[in-house]
């Protein structure tokens, strides 16, 4: 084989090996957090400092005590949309706690995605050494094997590309689920669309007690104002009618006296 064939053969094998190592490698340990409590800075607040209490109260807002979970498909490139929604919620409801989390696909798809690299390696090994593999199982190499082997480098590249595409498809869930205090408020899997910023803001506002009470308290006030104004206008009309009627009766009496 010449150098071009060696490069075409070695590149897919190298990429396959890197995919397999990355897939089955354990997660790296988390980096240790620095211990800032043992060495407080010059501007650190003491527990009894009144300014610390004031700053703690300033952090509280209408969204304090509310937790929103944004579970999205990380392999579908939904992270940018999730970050935009997180910034919008934190700006609209100060004190709210927004968490981002990957929404995994169902277990059958996850299991098949882990089996794809094994199938890729098996297909490449069969393509390279099929003359020795098929006779060991008492089989005669089929005709399609010879047609694929005639263009083995193109076939290996196609196996690698389609395998990676299938693995990416099986690892995607297409989800963008929004939970507020553990309750589902929006689901892309059922709606088949993303929520708008105003829609998501209204859905979260309906789950926050402070904003809900404010809306409920404003509605009866306006209704009472309308109800109080209607009787006043009705009393005014009722009071004006007898006055005009009395004047007409007095004029009739004067005319009768003159006659």
UniProtKB/TrEMBL annotation:
Parts of the chain that traverse the membrane: none
Positions of region (Disordered): 31-63, 211-242
Keyword terms, alphabetized: Redox-active center, Signal
Leader sequence residues: 1-32
Polar residues compositional bias, start-end: 216-242
InterPro entries in UniProt: Selenoprotein_Rdx-typ, Selenoprotein_T, Thioredoxin-like_sf
NCBIfam families named in the record: CXXU_selWTH
PANTHER family in alphabetical order: SELENOPROTEIN T (PTHR13544), THIOREDOXIN REDUCTASE-LIKE SELENOPROTEIN T (PTHR13544:SF0)
Name of the protein: SelT-like protein
Species the sequence originates in: Urochloa decumbens
